[in-house]
Design a protein that fits this description.
Strand order of the largest sheet: 3-4-6-5
Order of helices and strands: EEHEEEHEH
Oligomer: single chain
Largest sheet: 4 strands, mixed
Shape: globular
Radius of gyration: 15 Å
Number of helices: 3
Length: 144
C-alpha cells in the first residue's frame, strides 16, 4: 500500500523482509553498542549506523515480547502484530530523518514490550508514533 501525499511524494507502507532486523551478529551488536529509551509499553533500543552494506535497508527493526509477560504464544503474537502494524504506519518519519542526515546512513531499532496486560491497538499506535518521533529527533541531532 502506498499513501500519496502530493503528485511527487509517496509513502511506502509496506514492511518487507529487508526492513526486518535479523541475524545474530547484527542483533548482538545492537544490544551491546546501542542506546535505549522508553515509550510505554515499549523499551526502544537503537543503534545509528555510519555505513550500510550493499542492498541493506536504511532502517531495520525487530520486536520482542517476552514469555514472562505472556505465557500463551497467541497473546505474544497479537502484541507483535499490533506493533508491526503501528511501525508500518509511522516508519516513514524515521526513514525521512535518516535520508536527510549526512552522518547517519542507517538505523537498527528493537522494540521490547514491557507493559502489563494486553495493550489496545490505539495505545500501541500512540506509543509507536512517539517512539518514531523521538528516533527522528535523535537522528537529526546526531547529524549536527
Amino acid at each position: 500500500m502506498i499513501l500519496m501525499l502530493t503528485s511527487d511524494e509517496h509513502i511506502d507502507l509496506h514492511f518487507p523482509k529487508a526492513q526486518k532486523l535479523c541475524g545474530d551478529k547484527a542483533i548482538e551488536r545492537l544490544f551491546e553498542k546501542g542506546e535505549a529509551f522508553s515509550r510505554y509499553p515499549f523499551r526502544v533500543v537503537y543503534l545509528p549506523l555510519t555505513e550500510l552494506r550493499e542492498g541493506e535497508a536504511a532502517v531495520r527493526m525487530l520486536i520482542s515480547v517476552g514469555k514472562k509477560r505472556f505465557k500463551r504464544a497467541v497473546k505474544r503474537n497479537r502484541v507483535k502484530r499490533q506493533a508491526r502494524e503501528a511501525w508500518r504506519k509511522v516508519k516513514h518519519i524515521v526513514e525521512q530523518a535518516v535520508a536527510a542526515s549526512d552522518t547517519v546512513r542507517g538505523l537498527h531499532v528493537a522494540f521490547i514490550f514491557c507493559g502489563d496486560g494486553l495493550p489496545t491497538t490505539p495505545d500501541v499506535e500512540k506509543a509507536m508514533a512517539k517512539a518514531a518521533a523521538r528516533l527522528a529527533t535523535i537522528v537529526t541531532e546526531a547529524a549536527q
